[in-house]
Every structure is written in C-alpha cells, then in structure tokens.
Specification:
10 helices; five-stranded parallel β-sheet; alpha/beta
Length: 218
C-alpha cells in the first residue's frame, strides 16, 4: 500500500453499484451496499489518514464490461487497492442464451483484466470476491444449472487469486451458513441480489479477511 491517504476502489456489477449516484455527492456516490458499509467503517476508524473510497460498480456488467471500461474507471483513479466482485451476469446471460452470452467470457476477460492491472499498477493490491447465490427467486427454476455455473466461477476466482497474488474473500459459505438463521430470501431477495442484511454479511466478511491480510488498510 502507498502512503496515506490510501485510495480504495470497489468494482463490479449491480451488487457493488448499490444504486450509487454518478456525481461527486459524498452522500450518494458510494451507493447503499457493502461498499458503503466498508467505506463508512474504515473511513471513521482511519479518519486521521482520510482514506479515499471509490465505487465504480455498474449494474448489469459482466467481466468483459469491466475490462472495456478499466482505463477510465480504474487506471485513471490510481488506486492502492482494487476490490472486484463479478460473475452473476456472465452466468445469467449465458444460461438464458442471450446474444451477449453466446460464449462464456468470464475467465478470459477476468484474466486479461488482472494481467493488465499487474502491468499498469504493479504495486496495487488486489482483492477478489467470490460470486455467490442462494436457492430462491430467480435461481429456483434452474437451480442445478446455477450451482454448476457459479461453482465453476468460484473455482476460477480462487485460481486467479492464487495466480495473481490477490486476497480472496470467500462468500458462498457465509451465505449458506446464514440460511440456518433465516430463509434465503432474507439475505438475497431474488437469490442473487443482497438485502440490507446480505450486504452487511458481505461487509463483515470483507473486513474480516482483508484487514487480517497483507493488504490491510491502515
């Protein structure tokens, strides 16, 4: 990590986007999801160093969409740490047979993105978040297919985290365990998108893993 203030960037799809604004209003530009929760806690704890947090999640994005906007939404910000959560839209469009999902590009796009990041920002820390689902709402009808596809993505993310010396944030087990306390829809209202409680689970897990890793923000 570079000297203070640290710059932390959250990247991904709608789960990261969290309804964020597209302006510089500090009350809204972090959205209302896990990125906001993580930023609010670390921002308060590290106020003396005034870390800067950015959210560039875009609803509907696949890994290839991330790569397409990586110059503008990542490299230009020169982050010290990049946290990425992606995969559910790649799965959704591929399974639905949409034109944008004729070929499954998550693996190759994700790899290109990480390779280029290591080249352009060699000192930047990488956090890869595991995609996740629960059996409720949109995932019920083709649950076996969802499990197979997301399971493949989870294995891929683990492999990429090892290959690129990134910190992996496991999330599927966190949500599986949470269903012992409340129904799946309490955490992921449609099987994919978190509720407020679901975002809190993600934030807690991210902080637990990252803040106990070599990438600790301090």
């Amino acid at each position: 990590m570079s000297t203070s203030p640290s710059v932390i960037l959250f990247q991904g799809d709608s789960i990261t986007d969290g309804g964020r604004s597209r302006n510089d209003d500090p009350n809204h530009f972090l959205g209302h999801g896990y990125a906001y929760l993580i930023s609010s806690r670390l921002g308060a704890e590290l106020a003396g160093k005034q870390p800067r947090f950015y959210n560039r999640g875009v609803s509907g994005d696949r890994a290839s969409d991330l790569y397409a906007r990586w110059n503008e939404d990542t490299f230009s910000l020169k982050p010290d740490l990049i946290s990425i959560l992606i995969g559910v839209n790649d799965a959704w469009r591929t399974m639905n047979g949409e034109p944008s999902g004729v070929t499954d590009r998550l693996g190759r796009a994700y790899r290109h993105l990480l390779e280029e990041t290591k080249e352009v920002l060699p000192g930047t820390g990488l956090v890869l978040m595991e995609p996740f689902i629960l059996k409720t709402g949109a995932t019920v009808e083709r649950w076996d297919m969802w499990q197979e596809r997301i399971g493949h993505y989870q294995r891929l993310v683990r492999e990429l985290a090892t290959e690129f010396s990134a910190v992996l944030v496991p999330l599927q087990d966190v949500f599986n365990q949470a269903t012992e306390k409340a129904d799946a829809s309490y955490w992921l209202w449609d099987g994919v998108h978190p509720t407020a409680a679901g975002h809190e689970l993600i934030a807690r897990q991210w902080l637990s893993v990252v803040q106990n890793s070599p990438l600790k923000i301090q």
